[in-house]
Design a protein that fits this description.
The chain has 189 residues and is an alpha+beta fold. It has five helices and seven strands; from the N terminus they run αααββαβββββα. Strand 4 and strand 5 form a beta hairpin.
């Protein structure tokens, strides 16, 4: 059984990263990322929209929470009775691999710290390069890139990829109602 304390500590580190670095996004990008994080936390599918009032209340609570942890240091992770640096992948993954989980940590865009834990859904080798495909995520931060390179292994995160695909499909979807081709003003002949 997965150590819920370890997962909670990883999620707390995700929250600290978000509190420190949410300013790297434009206001529009931040709202979209917060909406996706809300959907993930509340098991809402990417193509479903949350209730606006609930989302806005959640965003306000999230920002208030961030203010309380923005100066915190990342917490060490307890692995087999030892405290490990949160960027130490091998030791944490040796523990989580027993349960089919993958831990990721590193730095992304603008050196924002990235942390996650997800179920391993598959593993392949593509042109000599190992590729790990992740499924359901148990901890994640705001930026959640859907692909990354970690220890010479390509990591594909399906959950963030689903949310990205949902945004793209909504953006380029045909309108819900076909537009009328009838002119609004007609002239008498």
């Amino acid at each position: 059984m997965t150590d819920s304390k370890l997962i909670g500590t990883i999620q707390h580190n995700c929250d600290i990263s978000d509190a420190r670095d949410n300013g790297i996004y434009s206001i529009c990008a931040l709202v979209l990322k917060l909406r996706n994080l809300y959907k993930w936390e509340h098991d809402i599918q990417p193509w479903q929209e949350p209730e606006t009032a609930a989302l806005l209340d959640w965003i306000e609570a999230k920002e208030t929470y961030w203010e309380t942890i923005v100066e915190d240091s990342y917490l060490s992770l307890e692995v087999d009775g030892r405290d490990e640096d949160p960027f130490e992948l091998r030791q944490v993954n040796s523990l989580l691999a027993r349960e089919g989980l993958v831990y990721g940590a590193g730095y992304g865009r603008s050196l924002k710290a990235i942390f996650f834990v997800a179920e391993q859904a598959g593993q392949e080798t593509v042109e000599g390069c190992p590729v790990v495909i992740l499924g359901r995520e148990m901890a994640r931060e705001l930026s959640c890139p859907f692909a990354m390179l970690q220890d010479k292994t390509i990591i594909i995160r399906r959950d963030p990829l689903r949310f990205f695909s949902g945004i793209i499909s909504r953006r380029y979807a045909p309108p819900a109602k076909p537009r009328s081709t009838t002119p609004l003003i007609t002239t008498a002949s």
